Amino acid sequence: MKAPRRSVAVAIGGVAVGGGRPPVVQAMTDTDTVDAVATAIQCKDLADAGAELVRVTVNTPKAAASVPKIRDRLDAMDCAVPLVGDFHYNGHKLLKKEPACAQALAKYRINPGNVGKGDARQENFAVMIEQALEHGKAVRIGANWGSIDEELLARNMDANARLKNPRDADAVMVRTLADSCLRSAAQARRLGLGDDRMVLSAKVSRVNLVIEAYRLLARRSDLALHVGLTEAGMGSRGVVASTAALATLLLEGIGDTIRVSLTPEPGARRTEEVTVAWQILQSLGLRHRTPQVTACPGCGRTTSIFFRELAASVQLRLNGKMKDWRARYPGVEKLNIAVMGCVVNGPGESRHADIGISLPGSGENPVAIVYADGARLTSLKGDGIAKDFEALVDAYVAKRFAPKR
Asked: What EC number(s) does the entry state (predicted)?
């Protein structure tokens, strides 16, 4: 794994981004922003799940007028998560017309592809930057291949066609996304916005292309980067595609904020995208939010489903305890627990974990061996193995992570 790219540090509503820090997790609401109550509730739900920045759609005068109300409701719920305004087409008008909205947001998201056409493009962009300067806010310049700057793309395509060895259309598109971001960043600088108030992003829904787009941005600029695969999709497809893209970039040290753009299953909570983002960071060892439970997939040796039930029970219990544990036991989020189902890899995995249990598989003695810090701790038998092991985990956490007095 490469060291984090040393981007320019940016402060977004009290959240430190970039400057070599580990990536920050962002999420986005899908409520109607005009409904301040529903949007505030979802913002808090996302923040409680681990979102450190939450983006809301600001697309109409009523939505803009609702943003300060959302901020007030979050403050009343003791939720300080910074809000990011997602502007398209009319952001310059909304920010000027609703100064309370401009002040309540911590960052403005501007898409260079749809702030206007011709001369209006630069004029509208300038208005939004001026509002950021007036209110002391950060800006994300976020290009997206679904709403790319068509004029710039056409010029780049024409220039490419005149080359002796033209590149393919995808390569030109990727370059155009980077050009669009960097041209807008240059204009923002001319207007007085510092690099410490800018974040760039170049979103594509194809894994190979989004990786190339961010590699190009990382080579051409040291501005902070928000990375993610746009329109990742639903279910396992979205999770796998997002993980493939984000993991590749993060392992190369690219990415200061991340978002997993999942389409929720019908009736599912919006928080799944936050959970997946944190799992990616934890799996790469970049950040930790909850203890990890290592468990084997099961095979013919593990004819009982008990180890699966225990693994699920332990993970569920850990999730329920984390709010209290974070306050009482600093560092507990790095805890690793193993719940294994037979003698093949069970003892070894359990020794590698902080605390682990190797349950008996098919034909083995009905004894579960528990290991802690690489050494055998005890053995468990009978019908109370699950409760006994969970009690051992509680005792281990209290002993290892309690602050020194």
From this structure: 1.17.7.3
Whether the CB-CB separation of 242 and 260 falls below 8 Å is answered with: yes
43 annotated to bind ligand: no
How many degrees, rounded to 5, is the angle at CA 28 between CA 242 and CA 259? 25
Q: Tell me: is residue 181 an annotated ligand-binding position.
A: no
Characterize the bridge pairing of strands 257-258 and 224-227: parallel
86: left (phi over 0), alpha (psi -120 to 50) or beta: beta
Phi, psi of 358 (to 5 degrees): -110, 105
Q: Which SS3 state, helix, strand or coil, does residue 108 take?
A: strand
Model pLDDT, residue 2: 86
> What's the token pair of residue 327?
């306050």
DSSP 366: S
Return d(Cα 298, Cα 104) in angstroms, integer.
Answer: 51
d(CA 338, CA 356): 4
Burial class (CB in 10 A: 0-12, 13-18, 19+), 56: buried
Report the relative pairing of strands 262-263 and 292-295 from DSSP bridges. unpaired
Identity of residue 392: L
Name which of 235, 255, 292, 207 is nearest 26 in CA terms. Answer: 255
* 330's tokens: 């600093």
Please choose, from the candidates 216, 110, 113, 207, the residue with its C-alpha nearest in 3D space to the C-alpha of residue 172: 216
Tokens of 232: 């990742």
235 phi-psi bin (left φ>0, alpha ψ -120 to 50, beta other): left
Which residues make beta-bridge pairs with 26?
53
Distance CA 70, CA 76 (A): 10
Q: What is the pLDDT of residues 256-308, one digit of tens each?
A: 999 999 999 888 899 999 999 999 999 999 999 999 999 999 999 986 788 88
Low-confidence ranges of the chain (pLDDT < 70): 303
**What was the pLDDT predicted at 307?**
82
- Per the CB < 8 A criterion, the answer to whether 43 and 81 are in contact is yes
Query: Distance between CA 126 and CA 263 in Å, rounded?
Result: 33
pLDDT of residue 63: 98
pLDDT, position 4? 84
